[in-house]
Amino acid sequence: MKKNRFASVLVLTAAGSFAIGPVWADVKSDQAIAKAEEQFAKGKPDEAIKSLEKLASGSPSVEAYLALGHLQELNGNADAAAASVAKAVELSASATSGQKAQALAASARMALKGGSGKSALDQATKAVAADKNAHSLGTLASAHARVGDAKSAHAAADAAIAAGATSSTAHAGKGDALSVSGQHADAIASYKKAIEFDKTNTAAKVGLTYALVAANKATEAKAVALEATTSDKNSGAAFAALGYATSAEKNFSGTDASWGEAIGHAQQGVFLAPKDPKVHVIVAKLFEARGNYDQALASYNLALTIDPGYTEARTAIITTQFRKGDLDGALVAARELVKQNPESPEANKMYGEFLARKGQYKEAVPPLEKAVAAMPRAGDAYAMLAHSYHMTRSFEDAKDAYAKAVELNPTDIGIKSNYGLLLGMSGDTDKGAQVLAALVATPGYKSAAGYANYGWVLSRMKPPKGPEAIAAYRKAIELDPANGGLHFGLGWAMVFAGQFQEAITEFDRAATMDKTLFADTRHGITRANYRLAVANSTSTSTPPDFAKAKAAEAAAEAAGRPDVVVAEAIANYEKQVASGEAAAAADAARRAAANAGGGDDSVDVGKLSKQLQKGSVSQRVDAANALAGAGSDAAEVLGYAIETDSTIVVRQAAVNSLRKIGGGARRALPYLRRYVNSQPTAQITAGKDEIALEMMESDLRKVIADLIRRLG
């Protein structure tokens, strides 16, 4: 038997142990267990363990084997402890429900310390099924946290605390749930509560150490971990935590002298707990801090050998793959990890980030939404989600996400810059301008993005502040002269300032500098030519000449970014002129120019998409009509509505918008093809109204078929 070189003050009621309280089979066993504990506390572990071995073999019971297993674990013999717990579980089959839950919870905790999360969760679930109490539920919370299921972990922990407000295990389980949710300040409070109710709870002390490090309180974390190793000298988890906190004190500097001390503690943790995957992960993290990536990878793989589903190790390996430049491979691995661990906030966060980095913003939104729902304090996840909303033109959602990101990252000027922009895009230009004015006025501020965003918001204010917007864009260009997007923004600022010819020049310059802006610049040139024609008409009191505007619109449509506003305004003008209403047509053209707004880049696709899916019939029709202004970005949304909406007037509106979008509607082709290839439901005894609907449906299918041919 392995000798314990240290006296222990731990008792059987430790939350990290197997007991939930004195539920002994009889007075004799109770006395024997109490005596063994006393012997152990006096530094006589061999005598204590031998006496319990004799008790368990002579009077086998759940309590005797759990008590034996606990002392064996405290003495550093994890294998013998596991065997004793397994025997307790075996005996619990014919024991009371409370004893059965006690044994199964102990088995779950053994798995948490030296096995797989899946096994721990299975045993903890069975423990709760046997007897739903504070200890079994608290253990279940810790098991859910281990496998990354934050939602279930919180539910189990809350139920545990409700069942026993003074249960150390319950509060430790809540700490684990809060930790996996990234709510470190709250986790600290829960772990401290657990320790308050049981000062020998080593698992809570270890959890508290990591939560304190995450909260940038490394010195306090080191003190907690040191106390844990002093009171439980055979806890590998405690030594690993001490190593982690020691390195954290020096910001995980691999070149600092403290690194040797830190890795020494962590490797002592491995020696004491070779089957604990968390211990191997800590060793890996310390090797990473040193730059020893091969050794780190070996330790991560050791953790996965013990627990193949251990998310913390897998996310670390995938992140390393990404850092080495293999984004595609990391993305594939992250997708598989989320498939296997769908409730893991960390896995979803990583997957969403990789998708966003690949430019797959639409696909990035669901996993990032899932991540922030489970991790309400994850500022980086909120920032990435906000950016993904922005890129998919869900401006209202982006504004709210950026507001949260600013709250969580108050010193990040990039996030604050985007927040100001999204305030403007979602309609609150005054507040957006205030945020950005304060930002660019910050001493030493030299970010082109902030000035460009400020220019955008200024140009969209009512009335537009065109000259101020132009000045802001010129400052941005001064800071980043090779950025074609800044010239594109300047072009729009000039449109708002009435400098139409200058705007056209800037749009062309932007397209030359950045080929990806070609379609959007054709759209801008269309708007500038239209407003220029109207302005010339007003100053000369002659009919407007829309020849250049029509040519520009044809080019914009061919590029996939037509200006729906201009196309409709010109069509209406020509229709009125043909009807002999030239004066009224000119007035209408001037009003259209005045109300034409900007480049339709503030059409909130996300907001309108929700309205198109969940609004009333009239609201859905309005949304379908408005989405035409978003161009190709709205094509899939409109196509989905055509395929799924039950009301024909909504489908008609969606089709009309796709026709206006022109070439940009190609993204809707899969939806359109499925729709025309489907078979409409025939009415055998159709009345007048049903016949009218069937005719409308037939006409709509012909229009869609024609649109498909034109889109190719």
Poorly predicted tracts of residues = 1-25
Rounded mean pLDDT score: 90
- The helix content is over 70%
The percentage of residues in β strands lies in: under 5%
Q: How far is it from the N-terminal to the C-terminal residue, by CA? A: 79 Å
Characterize the overall form.
elongated
Number of E-state strands: 0
Task: Please work out how many helical segments DSSP would assign.
Answer: 38
Query: What is the makeup of the main sheet?
Result: none
Query: What gyration radius follows from the Cα positions, in whole Å?
Result: 34 Å
Classify the secondary structure makeup into a structural class.
mainly alpha
Question: What does this protein structure show overall?
Answer:
By secondary structure, this protein is mostly helical. Helix content is 74%, strand content 0%. The chain contains 38 helices and no strands. The longest helix has 24 residues, at 688-711.
Q: Which characteristics define this entry?
A:
disordered N terminus, single chain, 38 helices, mainly alpha, 712 residues, 0% strand
Topology:
Elements: H1 27-41, H2 45-58, H3 62-74, H4 78-91, H5 97-114, H6 117-130, H7 134-146, H8 150-163, H9 168-180, H10 184-197, H11 202-214, H12 218-231, H13 236-248, H14 258-272, H15 277-290, H16 293-306, H17 311-323, H18 327-340, H19 345-357, H20 361-374, H21 379-391, H22 395-408, H23 413-425, H24 429-440, H25 448-459, H26 466-479, H27 484-496, H28 500-513, H29 518-540, H30 547-558, H31 564-578, H32 582-594, H33 605-614, H34 617-626, H35 635-644, H36 648-661, H37 669-677, H38 688-711
Helix pairs in contact: 1-2, 1-3, 2-3, 3-4, 4-5, 5-6, 5-7, 6-7, 7-8, 7-9, 8-9, 9-10, 9-11, 10-11, 11-12, 11-13, 12-13, 13-14, 13-15, 14-15, 15-16, 16-17, 17-18, 18-19, 19-20, 19-21, 20-21, 21-22, 22-23, 23-24, 23-25, 24-25, 25-26, 25-27, 26-27, 27-28, 27-29, 28-29, 29-30, 29-32, ...
